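Appendix B, Record 12. Input sequence as logged:
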Amino acid sequence: MSMTHYMELLAANQPWNLILFMAIPVVLAETVAITELYILFSRQFHGSVRNINRAASIVGGLYFVGVFVYLMFTAVIPLTAGGQWRGAADVIAVGAYLLGVVPLLSLALLDLGVLGRGLNELQKLKQHAIWVAVFLVVAHIAMIFGMLDPTLMQSAPLAMPEHGGMHH
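Logged structural output:
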């Protein structure tokens, strides 16, 4: 059984790659998600929980931009140029993981005031919650496809009959 590049990345250089590429982004995103639920239910748009939420989303978004740029140049571009992808599951896992930059950066930009300038606090919170949900979806797609044996989704060459003709 072989591994996707996603799992290979997390398994290599233990425990550092796991910390840098999984633990830090997930802990920050989960902090945003948990504090988001508290804010949504309590309607406390200001205070320490909102400050933690805001800090985690800004740090998480900016951190993941760095991860995205690093992996694009050290993994995605070389793998693509060398034709080294291990099938559809490999591409989906890495692609979904890197797609996490969209919701995480959007969260950071919302909290930095770059996006959503005309929105009130409740509207911003709704946008925030949507981006958290989008991140959770793409992160789970990455994890599911990343754990697959990539050969399960590789296309196999068609078997040709022994003597070149069709047999009935």
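The CA atoms of residues 78 and 84 lie 8 Å apart.
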